[in-house]
Amino acid sequence: MASELLTETFxxxxxxxxxxxxxxxxxxxxxxDVVQDAWLRxxxxxxxDVREPRAYLVRVATRLALDRLRxxxxxxxxxxxxxxxxxxxxxxxxxxxxxxxxxxAAPDVAERAVLTDTVSFAVLVVLESLxxxxxxxxxxxEAFGFPYEEIAAxxxxxxxxxxxxxxxxxxxxxERRPRYDTDPxxxxxxxxxxxxxxxxxxxxxxxxxxxxxxxxxxDSGGKSKAPLRIIEGGDKVARFLAAVGTDQLPDMEVxxxxxxxxxxxxxLSAGAPDLVLQLGxxxxxxxxxxxxxNPDKLGGMTDSAAxxx
Length: 309
Description:
This protein is an alpha+beta fold. The protein has 12 helices and 6 strands.
């Protein structure tokens, strides 16, 4: 295969590989590393062994992601404070591009909903509790619709074993994932009201928006200011946010953007991402506040990172 065609073929499948790796690893930077390693394998592969480029590349990326996931699992045991996935700026085309080899101009609504769901904070947090093999099967089957035969080849397991892994993973996710509201218009409206109340130190406004059993999960990795334990209870969450919401950062800018398929508050300091906040809603009230402030996890919120899942 000529060099130009080799590169063109890989770039055609890059969004798919990035989407698979990110959902498996929960970190955009790690997903990019996996895709880069996949490129090295692809460029050095014996072309006679590659009958179907898409299947070959997914197989390579999945195995590389599995290896990295096992390494990361050991590191996360010593992670300081709660762990959250790395937020990634997304858009309509971004989510669909991972499902097929090209991004269609008019994506199927149901397909987009599935892809949005599998990249959400709520699902990615639950996926952390799966075994590496279960996570790989869930991502390939539920997010991207790969047939069991191809998944079995990618994981070097029998098809019955893969079906069993898929069944266990689906059951686990169904039992543990929060049932958050998914209406983007309502989510945007609540996010705007929440931001106004928090930035104004409006305790009563926050209490009206928060569910009584609301919780706040902060991820700083011990590298910046954020709660090192989950804050439980709407009253405690409201008081915490009212106290810190009025803090000013140098050259601060606040935006509402789309990240992981949902409206998200992005706070920049001197032009660089400093904080990401996203809400989980149940019946129109805030059930969970996700707060990411680990500087190592904010690279996916730059303008150049958008539209890549």
